[in-house]
Design brief:
The complex is a heterodimer of chains A (410) and B (161). Chain A is an alpha+beta fold and 410 residues long. Chain A has ten helices and 19 strands. Chain A folds into two domains: 1-235, no CATH class; 239-404, Cathepsin B, Chain A (Alpha-Beta Complex), CATH 3.90.70.10. The chains are: A alpha+beta (410), B mainly beta (161).
């Protein structure tokens, strides 16, 4: 075995790891995540495979998921709290490799290639997440001196791994997950672990049976209730913010929806919403003239010029072709609306929302609150829509930030 | 994989009950609302693009829509002003409204209305292809707010908004 004199930080007991695995898959089941339809009835083999890091420390416990004694998936859990997330991955379907057979084949290969070396041990390693290999430690005498070396072979095709370091090109390279990924973020990861651990205790306090080995269909209603996120958490599931008027004392939500008055006035109506917010009231025809709108619509340079001229240069409009959710959030946090562009359409953004906790295998969701001037209507007080839009489900092309000019108006 | 209408409706039901719009005063009318019959929205080339599920109040008025992507992901929840939902029009009503724009005496004929997104997803309208002398000549887009048109086959310029 590889030596590592340092003590593994914040180790996780395999039984605790198994509880986290159970909670993760049952929460995904209760949340209706596709593929987890029958996972309330699965069992988790209590004896995990231990996958080591290149530095020798146990890195993951990989539990086999069983349904009627047949492997239907596997769950990779963290062997140390410094990894941050108790459950790293849930894989559907049986494992495509056999650990015992792969180890045996690798040992035989090494024995053939290095007949004079003594095989000191072999273990499963995660050599380049998520790739798994078998590391064989060898010892031999050279000039009267005992020397040691290790060889790593990928479990899937038994290819030797010959490149080392996270800064190598992607491919068949190896690096220590602890050293490169987990330890540099240890403090933050330990806090994340603590939140997950607290969450597990909240569930246990509500219904101890949630951690029973498997459930029959008649238990389903009770189990789903205990796992429904709304009832689970002592902390907020979502964070959000929308534009406010008078944000200092007793603020109220403050943004007004206007429909675009023609089918090509989306940027114009968006401009009207944003300009009204800053108390620069204009008709849509006035804004269209200032923005140079024609029968096809409005260009982005036209919109920028329009915002500035209509506010007598008291507002500064900035075009950003690399729209990013965090930029929109920053504007809303500063209580400023943003023009949000998608291909061929302009809308105003007046809020954001994000999931603080996500289901395993799914990134946390993020939304923007969009004041969409579509459907168009000649009566601007009809038409339009307030939309909570999934950021990742839409192609974003640009933002225009409209801000008070730091210098005096010209 | 493109989910079926039943699944889209279930996704919308979950979105109404527990989606990001819950608690937003602009969505107050969604309390106790139910998903209606999903409408398939196509792109301008006629390919299925996503489901648009109307959100109905008790008496059947449409107070919003949920856009559900082919893989079942809810992409957007929209609160609409009463009477402004494109989903409130059906194909027959869209055809009826378009009728006054069609010059049948000059030989124009109208195709079947298709619910499309004209531009990015979200800009829904009923499109009717008008044919003259055997060739597509105009696209009429019917929305609750009115009708607009373009030469047939012409997409919107994505550089203009």
């Amino acid at each position: 075995m590889a030596e590592n004199d340092r003590e593994r930080p914040a180790p996780v007991d395999p039984d605790r790891a198994r509880e986290h695995a159970l909670l993760a898959i049952r929460r995904d089941w209760a949340g209706g995540v596709p593929g987890f339809g029958h996972w309330h009835a699965v069992e988790i083999d209590p004896k995990p495979l231990v996958l080591h890091d290149l530095n020798g420390w146990p890195l993951f416990y990989e539990f086999t998921v069983l349904h009627r004694d047949k492997a239907v998936g596997s769950i990779k859990t963290s062997a140390s709290q410094v990894l941050g997330s108790p459950v790293v991955a849930v894989q559907m379907g049986p494992r495509r490799w056999d650990p015992d057979r792969a180890t045996k084949e690798v040992v035989e290969t090494v024995r053939r290639r290095s007949p004079n070396a003594e095989i000191l041990g072999a273990e499963l390693v995660c050599y380049s997440y998520p790739k798994i290999g078998i590391r064989v430690d060898l010892g031999h005498r050279e000039g009267g001196e005992e020397k040691r070396r290790s060889l790593i072979f990928d479990v899937a095709d038994l290819t030797p791994v010959e490149r080392f370091g996270a800064d190598e090109l992607e491919g068949l390279t190896a690096y220590s997950f602890y050293e490169e990924v987990a330890l540099p973020r240890a403090e933050k990861n330990l806090r994340r672990w603590e939140v997950s651990d607290r969450e597990l205790e909240v569930v246990r306090s509500r219904d101890r049976e949630v951690f029973s080995s498997a459930f029959v269909d008649s238990d389903v209603a009770r189990l789903r209730r205990a796992l429904t996120p709304e009832s689970l958490y002592a902390f907020e599931l979502y964070s959000s913010r929308v534009l406010k008027y008078g944000p200092r004392c007793t603020p109220h939500d403050c943004f007004m929806l206007y429909a675009q008055q023609t089918n090509v006035y989306c940027a114009v109506a968006t401009g009207q919403m944003i300009l009204d917010f800053y108390r620069w009231p204009y008709t849509q025809d006035q804004i269209a003239t200032a923005m140079g709108t024609d029968s096809g619509g409005t260009s982005n340079p036209g919109q920028v010029a329009g915002y500035e001229s209509l506010t007598r240069n008291c507002m500064d409009a900035t075009y950003d072709a690399s729209a990013d959710w965090t930029e929109a959030k920053a504007e809303i946090d500063a209580n400023r609306p943003v023009k949000s562009g998608i291909p061929g359409h302009a809308r105003a953004c007046a809020g954001w929302k994000r999931q603080n906790i996500s289901f395993i295998g799914q990134p946390a969701k993020r939304w923007l609150q969009i004041y969409d001037p579509w459907p168009w209507n000649a009566d601007l007080c009809q038409g339009g829509a307030v939309v909570w839009e999934d950021w990742d489900a839409v192609m974003h092309t640009n933002f225009i930030y409209v801000r008070h000019r730091a210098t005096s108006c010209s | 994989m493109f989910i079926d209408a039943g699944r889209a409706r279930e996704v919308a039901r979950r979105e109404i009950a527990g989606g990001p719009a819950v608690g937003d005063p602009a969505f107050a009318a969604w309390q106790g609302a139910e998903p209606g019959e999903p409408l398939l929205v196509r792109d301008l080339a006629g390919r299925p693009a996503y489901w648009l599920v109307p959100v109905l109040r008790g008496e059947g008025s449409i107070v919003g829509t949920v856009r559900v992507l082919p893989d079942g992901r809810p992409a957007a929840a929209a609160a609409l002003r009463e009477g402004t939902a494109v989903a409130a029009l059906d194909a027959a009503e869209a055809a009826r409204r378009a009728e006054r724009e069609i010059d049948r005496e000059a030989g124009e004929t109208a195709g079947t209305p298709d619910l499309v997104h004209d531009g990015p997803p979200g800009r829904e309208a009923w499109r009717i292809e008008v044919t003259w002398r055997g060739r597509p000549s105009r696209w009429l887009f019917v929305t609750p707010g009115g009708i607009y048109e373009r030469p047939a086959g012409e997409a919107r310029d994505e550089n203009l908004e």
